[in-house]
């Protein structure tokens, strides 16, 4: 029986995938419900009616667009490390933008504040995981 030969860096590649996968799934867990049932989430953005549903559905579509670089990165993190770099930059922009919006939000918007802080927490955690995945994918 032949011994199984491991590729160099195989553990790093699987670790990178393991760090990338939860961020990918978190994005999908927001995207799909926002697209399919936007009315359930309008309250968190302090919007309502047709315009509110359209706004939330649009955010879901943006989340779907957001995860495009994750797919090749999950398949081959080392080969598509640039996709991981794009994801890191996207996540950083999201975190900076959401933080800025939260810091400039006037008082009296409790639901919007709560929604914003959830996005900030997600993006902060996601940024840490994506940076770690990017670093692991660079190992030989």
Give an account of the 3D structure.
- The structure is a single chain.
- The protein has one domain.
- The protein has helices at 10-36, 49-66, 70-75, 81-103, 110-137.
- Helix 4 packs antiparallel against helix 5.
- The chain is 73% helix and 0% strand.
- The model has no long low-confidence stretch (mean pLDDT 93).
- The two termini are 28 Å apart.
- The chain has five helices and no strands.
- By secondary structure, it is mostly helical.
SSE topology sketch:
Blueprint: H1 10-36, H2 49-66, H3 70-75, H4 81-103, H5 110-137
Number of E-state strands: 0
How are helices and strands ordered from N to C? HHHHH
Tally of discrete structural domains: 1
Q: Give the helix proportion (percent range).
A: over 70%
So how many helices?
5
Shape: elongated
Distance between the termini: 28 Å
| SSE-based structural type | mainly alpha
Mean pLDDT: 93
Strand portion = under 5%
Largest sheet: none
Task: List low-pLDDT spans.
Answer: none
Computed over alpha carbons, the radius of gyration is: 18 Å
Summary tags:
mainly alpha; elongated; 140 residues
Give the gist of this structure.
The chain has helices at 10-36, 49-66, 70-75, 81-103, 110-137. With 140 residues, the protein is mainly α. The protein has one domain (10-137).
């Amino acid at each position: 029986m032949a011994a199984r030969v491991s590729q160099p860096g195989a553990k790093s590649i699987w670790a990178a995938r393991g760090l990338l996968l939860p961020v990918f799934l978190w994005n999908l867990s927001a995207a799909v419900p926002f697209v399919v049932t936007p009315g359930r989430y309008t309250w968190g953005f302090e919007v309502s009616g047709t315009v509110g549903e359209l706004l939330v559905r649009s955010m879901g579509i943006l989340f779907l667009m957001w995860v495009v670089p994750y797919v090749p990165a999950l398949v081959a993190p080392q080969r598509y490390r640039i996709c991981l770099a794009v994801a890191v930059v996207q996540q950083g922009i999201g975190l900076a933008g959401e933080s800025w919006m939260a810091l400039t939000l006037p008082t009296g918007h409790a639901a919007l504040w709560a929604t914003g802080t959830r996005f900030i927490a997600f993006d902060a955690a996601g940024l840490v995981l994506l940076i770690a995945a990017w670093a692991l994918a660079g190992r030989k």
